[in-house]
Design a protein that fits this description.
mainly alpha; single chain
């Protein structure tokens, strides 16, 4: 590699961005198995949107060379900010902005959604914090 490019950040972030984009595409493709469980297409917006936002966070962290705690903080903030529109649109303010109820559903869903999925009939749809 040419020494003039050795300290250039975007040169180093390029392969990492490509790798994380491939992983995001694979996550979105892997989520196709949820079609029968959730029914409809609302789940697809949540899966693809979540993979895309995850890729953007990973790319920003790689590009800026931020530490793990910063990456975790950005991930949680992105989850709470965009999760309302993607996963709990019925309780989001205007269907897009986080509301107290959508933040409650997102926060509780991290802990309890797996249990709730075991006891609900399919198709689940976009009810509560299950999406």
């Amino acid at each position: 590699m040419n020494s003039r490019w050795a300290g250039h950040t975007s040169w180093k972030a390029g392969p990492a961005a490509a790798n994380s984009l491939v992983i995001s595409v694979l996550v979105a493709a892997g989520s196709l198995g949820y079609a029968e469980v959730y029914g409809g297409v609302r789940w697809l917006a949540a899966a693809v949107g979540g993979a895309l936002i995850g890729w953007l966070v990973a790319y920003a962290v790689t590009l800026r060379r931020w530490s793990g705690p910063v990456a975790l903080t950005l991930s949680v903030l992105a989850y709470l900010l965009f999760g309302a529109a993607l996963a709990t649109p019925s309780s989001a303010a205007g269907g897009l902005l986080p509301s107290v109820e959508s933040l409650r559903q997102l926060s509780a869903g991290v802990v309890t959604s797996w249990r709730d999925m075991l006891t609900v009939a399919v198709p689940v749809g976009a009810t509560g914090g299950l999406l």
